[in-house]
Amino acid sequence: MINILKRKLKKNDDRNLYHCCIQKSGSQWIKKIFSDPRLQEKTCLKIYTPDKDFILGKKNREELKKGFPLNTIVSPLYVRYEDFLSIPKPGHYKAFFVMRDPRDLVISRYFSIRYSHNLINESIKKERIFLNNASMEEGLNYFIEAIENKHAELYSALLSWPGSIDNPRIMICKFEDLIGTDRLESFKRIFDHCEISIPGSTLKRILEKYSFEELSQGRKQGEADPKSHYRKGIAGDWQNYFDDNHKKLFKRVAGNLLIELGYEKNDDW
């Protein structure tokens, strides 16, 4: 009876949580964590997964103005900050945006498209054929150059969020912190921001359930399987693949992107 009353009270106090990000920033992994039954019980909110990539296409962005179901955790929501503001929201909501080092985004996208990503459209099929017939150097160059052409919208969306830190309803966090040695504290900060009260011991067990070791069926972080969706599970992997030419190309194409996102202080990397 107590749980029923609690759920009714929560439902009457309409609220939403928004997990915002761009692709290749652990979006499906974080969704798994928030879908855990123990968190569902604590939040009394159901997971709602949008079926569109709202970063791409004006038509998609217009649909954002319809909003999402109340009393849900919207995850993952691929959206730029200015478009997020256009979403109708309940009086009580919280959001967090997960950012990731663009150099690691390049590496993650390369291995994902070459090996593990579902062939959901003709574009990905063509890219896989290209990557399987190209050298790694050519493949990485392709995804670095995409920062200013094919994937320009994605990186523009990534860059749009840091300026939202003045909004108390929104928290910016780094993917690198969520997979690092202080991941427990990093997730605790997200849950505190989202007003999810959960014992530290329970949170620890949830993170263990969805750890890289569990999801990769026993591999430790850093042990790579290039054909797995859970490939390596570490930050800074770009350093294992970028040569001087890749770095030079990235700096030319991306400009001040790393500095504006706070991943570098200058171009001396």
Give the arrangement of secondary structure elements:
Elements: H1 2-12, E1 15-21, H2 27-34, H3 37-43, E2 46-48, H4 58-64, E3 72-78, H5 81-84, E4 92-99, H6 102-116, H7 122-132, H8 136-145, H9 152-160, E5 170-174, H10 175-178, H11 183-193, H12 200-209, H13 212-215, H14 244-254, H15 257-261
Parallel strand pairs: 1-3, 1-4, 2-3, 4-5
Helix pairs in contact: 6-7, 6-8, 8-14
Describe this structure in words.
Helix content is 47%, strand content 11%. It is built from 15 helices and 5 strands. It has helices at 2-12, 27-34, 37-43, 58-64, 81-84, 102-116, 122-132, 136-145, 152-160, 175-178, 183-193, 200-209, 212-215, 244-254, 257-261, and strands spanning 15-21, 46-48, 72-78, 92-99, 170-174. Strands 2-3-1-4-5 form a 5-stranded parallel sheet. Helix 4 links the parallel strand 2 (46-48) and strand 3. Helix 6 packs across helix 7.
List the defining traits of the structure above.
alpha/beta; 269 residues; Rossmann fold; disordered N terminus; 2 domains; five-stranded parallel sheet
User: What characteristic shape results from the CA principal axes?
Assistant: globular
First and last CA, distance: 59 Å
The tally of structural domains comes to: 2
Beta content: 5-15%
The CATH superfamily of the largest domain appears as P-loop containing nucleotide triphosphate hydrolases
Q: Provide a count of the helices.
A: 15
Mean pLDDT: 90
User: How much is the radius of gyration in Å?
Assistant: 19 Å
Category from helices, strands and their pairing: alpha/beta
**Uncertain segments:** 1-11
What's the helix-strand series?
Answer: HEHHEHEHEHHHHEHHHHHH
CATH-derived topology of the largest domain: Rossmann fold
- Strand numbers in spatial order across the main sheet: 2-3-1-4-5
CATH architecture level-2 label of the largest domain: 3-Layer(aba) Sandwich
The share of residues in helices is: 40-55%
Main sheet attributes: strand count, strand direction, barrel closure: 5 strands, parallel
**How many strand segments?**
5
